[in-house]
Amino acid sequence: MPEIDNAVRELIRAYLYDPAADREAILGDLPEGVGKPAALLHSCLQRAHERREAGVHFGESFEMPHLQARYPDEELNFLVPESYDPATPTGLMVLLHGGGSGSPRDAGRDWLQSGDGGYHFHDTLAEMPCITVAPGNLQLETHKRWSNPTSDAYVLGVIEEACCRYNIDPDRVCIGGQSMGGFGAFHIVQTLGDRFATVGCHAGAWYWGFWEGMRGTDFYLMQGINDFIPGERPRFTEVAFARMASACLSGFHIPHTYDEHQGTHSFTDPPARESFLGFLDHARDRRREAFPTEIATCSHKGAFRLYDSPHWFWLSVGRTHYGTFEIDHLEPTESLPSYCTTDFRHYTARVPGGMVHATNEGDNCIAIRAHNVDELTVWLNGKMVDFVRPVRVTINGEVVHDDVPQPSLKTLLQSFDRRRDPGMLFPARLDFDLKKNDWELQKQFVPIQPTE
Hints:
With 452 residues, the protein is an alpha/beta fold. The protein has 3 domains: 2-44, no CATH class; 55-283, Rossmann fold (3-Layer(aba) Sandwich); 294-442, no CATH class. 25% of the residues lie in helices and 27% in strands. It is built from 11 helices and 22 strands. The strands form 5 sheets. It has an 8-stranded mixed beta sheet, with helices on both faces. A 5-stranded mixed beta sheet has the order 10-17-18-20-21, with no helix packed on it. The chain has a 4-stranded antiparallel beta sheet with strand order 13-14-19-22, covered by helices on one side. Helix 8 links the parallel strand 8 and strand 9 (257-261). The radius of gyration is 22 Å and the shape is globular. The relative contact order is 0.11.
């Protein structure tokens, strides 16, 4: 049996970390009926927690081979508090800097400097019950360097690297961004929000927002009322963006924090700095709820462009129908906008794709409303359902599954692939093809009502 266990572990490690491995063949070679597959996966994760010194570590490179190959030139900056004990899981704070398209690769260092000016939050972060990582930005030709699928993958890689070096509790990973990093926070809370215990956004902006999908996330919005200064500071991060996001979230009855201060854009301004310190204090005790009972998602998300975004908590949206769904949209009022002069309008736009609302009603019953969705996957964890009893799934009022799910190591690995997140694993999945009875399902769609 030990030889079999070792062979299985080698297969799992190859699946997780070997880019040359035939991953589909590995999945086919995995044994059935493996007991405690999550524990087995955890035992195969790369970990190097020992011999990590406290203090600030500037200019680090990725150490995990698969990430090092992908990001050979990127810079990571870590702050390890004196209180860190590698034997005890701790939190992780990811900080996204601003600066626009001209910001250098080492701009993340500013977060970890000592002193009261600019991004310098060293003294506060050193007292936090977490590791801090401030990555440099990918040198993309855009001032939205944290707001696209490439940067999403990079952020997940940063988290994976931090979890290899340090004993990180996967349900205590937080992220905060300023300016261009605030752009990123408005984007990430929609595309990767299920990965974080809280998402903090200061002085950001957005054009697209699927705000009704923020159930189950914790969003902490910060904005200076004087962000826009005529003749000095343009309007592309002014207060209108934060106010409208908060209004949309409130309209959907989704809890969030909105801190509108009297300051300006930069952390050199005391009110702006105090606001972000409030977010750091808020983040100290936050924990993610990895398996919320009520969630909503859509097929395409993003703060500035809508990208394919299939995964959200325990749902994955596959192919969608030819129809549209509604999403909140902000746009300039001028046909040729100037960021120094223009105003913005809000409306709900119809865009191609599909959306899903799902509720775990308890007692092994899951109710789903799907609109313009042809393929849908429901991922199951033992904290959501009892695997020894049938799971009943209804989609748009029709019972589409009422049977005992079949957990497997293969499915668990496939679920890990979605976020490479060891805290949100699913050993069973239910795949649904809705196109075969599309007309019957779509015409029954009724939007979910807000929960008080």
